[in-house]
């Protein structure tokens, strides 16, 4: 089933383009889009793994999808997830869209993501 971003949602943030070497630790770890925020992952080159977790502290992903160059993937709000490059030449970015009623706080990725730091309660 293909997920769509609601038509009334507004573009709020675009990441820089990331490579295998430049992906921030924040995205490599388990994180979730904030409530009311969808992400659109676009892969320009190589391949990326998109893993979904049932909870922030889940030891293993419930599912994993390989996203190839030229494809994109919609990430839903509040979904615990992790993104990882699968190839040395991976090159990708994420656009974030939010419900117009949602007031986002923070700066950069912290504006649109909730992050889990393993081992810290």
Largest sheet report: 5 strands, antiparallel
Please state roughly what percent of the residues sit in beta strands, choosing from under 5%, 5-15%, 15-25%, 25-35%, 35-45% or over 45%: 35-45%
- Runs in which pLDDT lies below 50 for 5 or more consecutive residues are 117-121
Mean pLDDT equals 85
| DSSP strand tally | 10
Distance between the termini: 35 Å
Radius of gyration: 14 Å
Net shape? globular
Tell me roughly what share of residues is in helical segments: under 10%
- Helix-strand sequence: EEHEEEEEEEE
Structural class: mainly beta
Number of helices in the DSSP assignment: 1
Notes on the structure:
The protein is 3% helix and 44% strand. With 121 residues, it is mainly beta. The strands form two sheets. Strands 1, 2, 4, 7 and 9 form a five-stranded antiparallel sheet that branches.
Features:
121 residues; mainly beta; five-stranded antiparallel beta sheet; 1 helix; 10 strands; disordered C terminus
């Amino acid at each position: 089933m293909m997920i769509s971003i609601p038509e009334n949602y507004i573009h709020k943030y675009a990441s820089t383009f990331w490579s295998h070497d430049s992906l921030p630790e924040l995205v490599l770890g388990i994180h979730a889009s904030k409530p009311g925020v969808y992400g659109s992952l676009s892969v320009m080159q190589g391949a990326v793994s998109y893993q979904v977790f049932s909870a922030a502290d889940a030891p293993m992903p419930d599912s994993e999808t390989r996203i190839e160059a030229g494809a994109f993937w919609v990430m839903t709000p509040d979904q615990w997830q992790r993104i990882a490059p699968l190839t040395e030449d991976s090159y990708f970015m994420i656009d974030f869209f939010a419900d117009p009623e949602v007031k986002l706080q923070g700066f950069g990725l912290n504006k649109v993501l909730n992050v889990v730091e393993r081992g810290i309660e």
